Amino acid sequence: LLVALLRAGTADGKRHALLAIGWLVKDAPTRLLLVGEGSLPPLVALLCSGNLSEKLRSAFRLAMLVHAESLCSPILDAGALPPLVALLWQVYADGTGGNNICSILQQLAADARLRELAKEFGAVGALAAAA
Known about the structure:
The protein is 78% helix and 0% strand. 40% of the residues are buried. It has helices spanning 2-8, 11-24, 28-36, 40-49, 52-65, 72-77, 81-94, 99-108, 112-121, 123-130.
């Protein structure tokens, strides 16, 4: 139900789903279950097309999911890096803070592919600017 709300819910439904996921991702089995149920594509979609609040909440949920090192690859495979970098540049420019985005990029750095992709998507410059 939460994944369905993220995909096709109203703005209020998406907000509630993001809040519920925030509570549920606190333990490893639930993180794996949420990923298995397909939560990554709609979280990444909100990073791309949501309002700023939805983007920041999605980034925070991804940061919570990535605490399980085995989830780095699925998060990268879902296409999270480009919108995370774009969001980091946006919040840096707006002065709204980018701690969650920096945190997830740092966690994703455990995946060797991120180090290769970081240059392509401007992650290094964004992280340096946010520091």
